[in-house]
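Bumping with the actual sequence this time:
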Amino acid sequence: MPSFASELKRQLAARTGDPGSPNRRAELAGIVDAAGACDDSGVTLRTSSAAVARSVVRLWRSEFGLEPRLERSGPDLFGQARYAVRVEGNRAVQALEELRAERERSLRTAGPAGIAYLRGAFQGAGSVTRPGYRRGHHLEFVHGDEEFIGRVARLSRIPLKVVRRRGRWVAYTKSADGVTTLLARMGLHEAVLEYEARAILSEAKANANRVTNFDAANAARVAAAAARQQEALESLDPRTLPEALREMLELRLEHPGASLSELARLVGLTKSAANHRLRRLTALAK
């Protein structure tokens, strides 16, 4: 079963492959910067997402007229297949220069082109935990280039913490608002709805647990108080009590689990009057 992050990348890749989608070059620039390795003769992009690999092939063809070479390798340490998309030659080198210019334009405008670059960056270097994950919310971009991580943090428009971890740079957010805001910025609105639905469900469960715990604690306190009262009243001699108190004593001993309201109804008194008699009996027992 694909991970939640893999499914989001598949959705983004499907949108990138649409010939009518704008800023396709900006998105390709983001993917290449995130997952590409450039050399003097071209660039190789590596990914574990088949959808992203197919999308990159389509983009090279439609935007630059290149014919990429797509290769699939065996599973990695995590059991995932790896895909490599290679373009080379003078036209590929020229295309890389055009993509760098497109990236700079995206950073200057920070509008739709910037969002497209961010979508590409997520496809190549992003990950996010599924809604309702027991360890909380987490969305991150991981890359060896600090400048790339800086661009992502700038385009995200939300505060991302940037750290160096195991020799790589990471920009991440652990807040629910941060995750949903960034997903919405990339156009992943169904994922945002799923996160919000999970948040509502989690809050409802938490409230139900609080109510249950409160009721249980309250019932325990009532039971403990009733047991103490029962023990004290059993020490009284009914023959020494006035008739009204004797009647209340006998009712309480016959109905140890009855509430104050129920006792008052049995004896034909108001709740306040029944409570007053019980307090007198408890005082006498002490």
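The tokens above came from a reply further down the thread. Residues 214-285 form one domain.
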